[in-house]
Specification:
The protein contains 13 helices and six strands. It is of the alpha+beta class. Strands 3-4-6-5 form a four-stranded mixed β-sheet, with helices on both faces. Strands 1-2 form a two-stranded antiparallel ribbon. A hairpin with a 5-residue loop joins β1 and β2. The chain is elongated.
């Protein structure tokens, strides 16, 4: 199976990365502005001489409050993003419990990776291993210093050399296509938004548990704060959904094609996907944004109603379809 369109895929991923970098601050600032706007509409006003509340919306006050907090939002989110982007390798390793694998521990794996890297003219990535008897693998990293291929012990024990080469080829193709850089950018963004949403809902719970229903000096109530929080949550959810769907499922088909070309045996990769899908590992990762890196997402193997739900919102194409395409060559 001839692998074509790698440069097109790289350019597409680079464009998406830039788009995400531009979208994220706009989404955050837009959410902050909406927060002040809604509070201004629902909470703005004053008490008249008779003690009655008189609503009065002042857009200038909303703009003033937004401009006052604008630099702080940019600074906090910018620093947060840089820290998360810098330490993404450490975060991912901790989330899956990975450790570095030395050549003497598994010379066969090192030889497979080295030979494939030499055949396609790319630098050797780091190799990590997860002590998990089930099967899975993924690539991560944003540059040559951090590019990593991670595999489970179950994958090494269950697959033969040809199947293992197919999986490694798949992951190396993700690195070559800059898929990992795009996905890491997405992971950092979604992680920040998710944390902000968690803080908002925690604040809502605190107000609901310990506050009261009396209006404060700005005329706001618990109901108003909850409404604003829900709107912010909806915006964050929309951003997360857009980010997930922006990372096209096509990248997995492209990686399958590249992996099949590198290993020279499409059927070996098809057999590997079939074996992995029967017992996918890293189910205990606990971080959905990291799980989208895996060659097979463990949740895609669920059945019943959840299977339909996951197929709609999954970041991965159907495994059976991937196998079918590989077996056509």
């Amino acid at each position: 199976m001839k692998y074509v369109g790698m440069q097109t895929q790289i350019r597409r991923n680079n464009r998406l990365s830039v788009l995400l970098l531009l979208m994220f601050p706009l989404i955050i600032l837009g959410t902050v502005y909406m927060f002040f706007f809604i509070l201004g509409m629902l909470g703005g006003g004053y008490y008249d001489s008779y003690g009655n509340w008189v609503s009065e919306f002042d857009i200038n006050e909303v703009n003033s409050e937004f401009l006052a907090i604008f630099p702080w939002v940019v600074l906090i989110v910018g620093v947060w993003f840089l820290i998360a982007y810098k330490f993404n390798t450490w975060i991912i390793r901790k989330s899956v419990g990975a450790r570095s694998l030395e050549r003497r521990e598994n010379p066969k794996l090192y030889n497979i990776v080295e030979n494939m890297c030499m055949s396609c003219g790319m630098d050797m990535p780091m190799i990590n291993i997860v002590d998990d008897p089930r099967l899975n693998a993924f690539a991560s990293g944003i540059n040559k210093k951090t590019y990593t291929v991670t595999v489970t012990t179950g994958l090494l024990n269950r697959l033969n050399d040809a199947e293992l080469a197919g999986v490694i080829g798949h992951e190396l193709t993700h690195i070559r296509n800059n898929d990992t850089r795009l996905l890491i950018t997405s992971i950092v963004f979604v992680g920040i938004v998710s944390t902000i949403v968690s803080i908002i809902f925690h604040m809502i719970w605190r107000v609901a548990a310990f506050g009261n229903n009396n209006r404060n000096k700005n005329g706001m109530s618990v109901l108003v704060i909850m409404l604003v929080g829900l709107i912010c949550g909806a915006i964050a959810y929309f951003f997360t959904a857009v980010t997930r769907f922006a990372i096209s499922r096509k990248r997995e088909y492209m990686a399958d094609a590249g992996g099949a070309e590198l290993c020279g045996d499409p059927l070996a990769l098809a057999n590997a996907l079939r074996t992995i899908s029967a017992a996918p590992g890293l189910k205990d990762c606990g971080r959905e944004e990291v799980a989208q890196l895996f060659i097979i997402h463990p949740k895609d193997m669920t059945s019943g109603i959840m299977s339909l739900f996951n197929s709609i919102f999954s970041t991965h194409p159907d495994t059976a379809k991937r196998i079918e395409i590989l077996e056509q060559f």
